[in-house]
Amino acid sequence: MKTQSLRPILNNINTLKYPKLINFLPSKTAFITGAGSGLGRAMAEELAEDGWSLILADVKNEGLQDLRNILRSKGVTVEAFQFDVTDERQFEKYFQSAMSKFGSVELLVNNAGLGAGGNLNYFEVSEWRQVFEVNVIGTAIGIRTVLPQMLKRKCGHILNIASAAAYHSLPFIGAYNATKAAVVSITESLNGELSNTGVSCSVMISGFFKSSLSENTIGGERAIALTKGLMELSSLSSKDVAIRTLKNLEARRFYNIIGPQARIFYFIKRHFPKLMLFLAPKVAENAFDKALLVESRG
């Protein structure tokens, strides 16, 4: 049975899930990195339901092409490119390819990321470089590549995906914490630079949630166990986070804080920073215990 195109239906504003987005992003065209799984995939699926045209990127091809095929079968206009966001030439090449087809990109979601953890006494310098290349330099390359055409058109939004790790500073994921703190700071600086340009930006800050992050984590078994445990402590799925992120984007919130865990840590860090230092090791210990429990259940 042939799948009916969603676009004629979704052009009716009354059927849109996120109708306020078109007030400042009228062309409904988004470029999403790390789109093959987890949050990136969930955000692509949510925007597709509203008839957005999508440019999807991921370093892994299988999930990326699977998503592209599913969305195309539903009548969504979508292109998918496999490349590493740390490769500036590849990013520029595929962005220009997308521009030749779509004409503009109004929403950039810098979502591609790498988990990292382990005792800082043993964490290799090469691992530090690897996680900073993906999480920080990849974000910077995305901004540098896509922003110029937004400024030229005086229209667009850059959404950088950070984490509550930027301020809760749990032990054994120090490198990951540092990269996400950098993403928050970059976005805060960018916000000032974009004043009176017609282009805006925001940063999404969530606690850990159920996603594919543990499959993309370096630093050994302890890092993976902690990541899994932190995800198990959350009731949120990638889809839950995608929906809340887009709702906050509609509301034009610069600090796009998602979930009770992230909000509680944010409050404590701002008002009781020494308490956060006390709580952080206990949260990590609880996460390890949760990971062991899940592992024992098979």
3D structure, described in words:
The chain is an alpha/beta fold and 298 residues long. The chain has one domain: Rossmann fold (3-Layer(aba) Sandwich). Helices cover 53% and strands 14% of the residues. It is built from 11 helices and 9 strands. It has helices at 7-10, 38-49, 61-73, 88-102, 125-153, 165-168, 174-193, 221-232, 238-250, 260-271, 273-296, and strands at 29-33, 53-58, 78-82, 107-110, 115-116, 156-161, 199-206, 217-218, 255-258. The strands form 2 sheets. The chain has a 7-stranded parallel sheet with strand order 3-2-1-4-6-7-9, sandwiched between helices. Strands 5-8 form a two-stranded parallel ribbon. Helix 2 (38-49) packs across helix 9. The longest helix is centred in the middle third of the chain and has 29 residues, at 125-153. The chain is globular and about 50 Å long. The protein starts with 6 loop residues before the first helix and ends with a helix. 46% of the residues are buried. This is SDR family NAD(P)-dependent oxidoreductase. One of its GO terms (molecular function) is oxidoreductase activity. Belongs to the short-chain dehydrogenases/reductases (SDR) family.
